[in-house]
Amino acid sequence: MELSEVVEKIVKDEVKNHKENFRFREPILGFASAEDPLYSQLSQIIGNKQLHPKDIMADAKTIIVYFIPFSLEIIKKIQGQKNIVQEWSDNYTSTNILLGRISDILKNELTNRGISVATEPPTNNYDPIQLNAKWAHKSSAVIAGIGTFGLNRLLITKSGTAGRLNSLIINEEIEPTKRDDKSSYCLYYKTGKCKVCVEKCPSGALSTDGFDRFRCNAYLDGKNIHDLQQGCGMCSSGPCAAKGFI
C-alpha cells in the first residue's frame, strides 16, 4: 500500500468509526510539496510572517492536509435565522478533538515507519494580540489542491466550507495533489453575484473589501456567545456551506 493510501485510510477510518460520525461527511485529503514555490510567497500574500515548512522541519518534503466536512444537518442549522447555533459549537469542539486524535494516530504510524513528523495545533495556534498565525492550515490546503479561498476568507472545498482541517509535515515524499490555479470554488469570485457570507456576518467584520479580524474577535469575545460556545458559523452558512462551485 502506498504511503498516501495508508494516510487516507487512517483519516477516513477514524471519521467513519467515530462514535459521533453523524456529525461529519467523508474527509478530503491532499498532499503538498515542501518545495512548492507558493510557500515562499505566503508571507507577502497573507501580509504577516509565515513559516516555511523547512523552518519547522529542515528536511521537510511533504505536507499532509485533511479536511472534515460537517454534516448536512448542522449546515441546515447554521443556515437558519439564528446567529448563534449550539449545534455548530458542539461540532466545532468535537471535530477539534477528532483532528487531534487523527494527528496522534498518523504521527505514531509514520514514526513507526521511520518518518519524522511535525504538527501544529488545529486551532488556537495564533498570536492572541495580533490574531494571526505563522502556520496557516488553510494555505496548505489550497497549495495541496483540496480547495480555494472564498470571499468569506475561508477554505472552500468540493464539499463546501463548513468543516475543520489540519495539516502535518513529514520528511517523506508523497506525490503532490494536482491543483487548478485558475479555478475557484467561490460563487462570488466566479460570478460576482453572491455575497451571502457578507450579508449574514453579524459583526460587520466581513466585506467585499476585506476581513477585520479584530472586529470579528471583539464580537465573539463580547459575550455575544456563551463562554463554552465556539464561533457563530455565519461566514460558513452561505451556498458554499455544503459544496464548492466548480
Brief write-up:
This is Epoxyqueuosine reductase. Helices cover 35% and strands 13% of the residues.
Kindly describe this structure.
This protein is of the alpha+beta class and 246 residues long. It has one domain (3-181): NADH Oxidase (3-Layer(aba) Sandwich), CATH 3.40.109. Helices cover 35% and strands 13% of the residues. The protein has nine helices and eight strands. The chain has helices at 3-16, 38-46, 53-56, 72-78, 86-112, 137-143, 187-191, 196-200, 213-221, and strands at residues 28-33, 62-69, 117-119, 148-149, 155-156, 163-170, 206-207, 210-211. It has a four-stranded antiparallel β-sheet with strand order 1-2-6-3, with helices on both faces. Strand 4 and strand 5 (155-156) form a beta hairpin. The two termini are 31 Å apart.
What key attributes describe this structure?
single chain, alpha+beta, NADH Oxidase, four-stranded antiparallel sheet, 35% helix, 13% strand, globular, Epoxyqueuosine reductase
Outline the fold blueprint.
Blueprint: H1 3-16, E1 28-33, H2 38-46, H3 53-56, E2 62-69, H4 72-78, H5 86-112, E3 117-119, H6 137-143, E4 148-149, E5 155-156, E6 163-170, H7 187-191, H8 196-200, E7 206-207, E8 210-211, H9 213-221
Antiparallel strand pairs: 1-2, 2-6, 3-6, 4-5, 7-8
Helix pairs in contact: 1-5
Protein name: Epoxyqueuosine reductase
